[in-house]
Amino acid sequence: MRHRYRAYTGGPDPLAEPDPPTDAELRAVDELLALVAAADPDSDADREALDALADALSRYGSGERAALAETDPSELRRLLGPEGAAARTRLDAADHGLSPRELRRLGEAALRDVERGRGARPGGHAGPSGPGGTTGEMTGAFLPYEAEEDRPLDASATAREAALRRARSAGPPLLPEDLRVAETEPESAAAVCLLIDLSHSMVTRSLHEAAARTALALLALVRTRHPQDRVQVVGFGERAVELTPAALVAHDRSEAPGTNLHHALRLARAHVRRHRGLLPRVLVVTDGEPTAHLSEDGRARFAWPPAPRTVEATLAELDAVLREGAEVTFVLLADDPRLRAFRALVERRRGVRVVDADADLLGPVVLDRYRRR
Fold it and tell me: What's the rounded Cα separation, in Å, for the pair 66 and 64?
């Protein structure tokens, strides 16, 4: 199943150098090799098939993951019986997952795709408080530019530094040591919750993968550049659930009924309350109006067309999130009459921003909203 992830983020294969097999995979391989050694072939053809199977398994155990594709599950069952088939099933289950390092590489590839391939502004949190989208209050001082600097260059300060250097001694018009960036106060840490619609319509409109890539990119951005932030990713269909990077990648894109934004906002409010003192931010990615909510007994209630009670419960939970001081951004991936009606309801609320996007713009829009303080 690992092959389905190889084109997941586009561009260079983030899994081109896979990690060695895990302990669970190696145990399944050793079990299969033991069965091969104990097998009593009925013919020379079966002996050759067993030798080929042993060779593929040995190469897989040594780190050549592609060797597993050389083994035919039906042929393995014929040669090794039910025990062999069960061991192969355990090996498939272990091989399906990705290691933490591979998940990190997927996130980094997704982040590069957003920042370079899609034209999003790279660097630190882009916001309105300083030139070029820097964040934090500017102190009025300027600092030398350093490699991997997130802040944009300050042209005036750079030109002034170059002129002063040339006044002291002759030299070229510009040198690397002339480069200057504006000094700013440290930015505040944020508690961010990204809510991703996993409903049937997201799958049929081919928006699910764009949303998953966006979430992986956001997690990579936080991990590598803003580790002080606390980020939660929540997927919502009939119910809402917190998603790890592994769950994002492994999600089977099933056609989940319902868009339970009510439940997702409730999880977001809990995340914000757990991290009081941080800047609360909630980002909602959806292509439709809410069609499910949690009843008082905790059961999910789905209705199409949406029941008035679902909309009321969702708006009440949104208001509760806003009372926690959160800024809420809705990123809408569709435009239909029912969604426009829901949009009108949320736009009336102070602290809510609504933006439109499509699959290509989703990543840049979400990361830009995250960067703004």
Answer: 6
The owner of tokens 């091989």 is: 95
Contacts of 82 (CB under 8 A, 6+ apart): none
138, 132 Cβ separation under 8 angstroms: no
In order of start, what are the domains of the chain with their CATH numbers?
A: 20-98 (no CATH), 138-184 (no CATH), 190-371 (3.40.50.410)
Residue 233 has pLDDT above 90, yes or no: yes
Band of residue 13 on the pLDDT scale cut at 50, 70, 90: low
How would residue 119 be classed by pLDDT, with cut points 50, 70 and 90? very low
Q: Taking the model in full, what pTM does it have?
A: 0.65
The total of other beta-carbon atoms located within 10 Å of residue 196's CB is 27
Instruction: Name which of 97-111, 274-288, 325-339, 344-358 the model is least confident about.
Output: 97-111
Could you give the CA distance from residue 373 to residue 191 in angstroms, rounded to a whole number?
A: 12
Amino acid identity for residue 128 in this structure: P
Q: What is the DSSP string of 58-122?
A: HHHHTT-GGGGGGS-HHHHHHHHHHHHHHHHHHHHHHHHS--HHHHHHHHHHHHHIIIIIS-PPP
Answer left, alpha or beta for residue 136, where phi above 0 means left and psi between -120 and 50 means alpha: left
Cα of 72 vs its chain's centroid, Å? 33
Please give the distance of CA 186 from its chain centroid, rounded to a whole number.
Answer: 26
Residue 157's beta-bridge partner residues?
A: none
- Tell me the one-letter amino acid at 155: A
**Alpha helix segments (H runs only) across the chain:** 23-38, 44-61, 73-96, 100-112, 155-168, 200-204, 208-225, 245-250, 261-274, 308-323, 337-347, 359-371
Q: Render pLDDT for 56-110 as a digit per residue (tens, 0 to 9).
A: 888 888 877 677 777 888 888 888 888 888 888 878 766 656 667 777 877 888 8
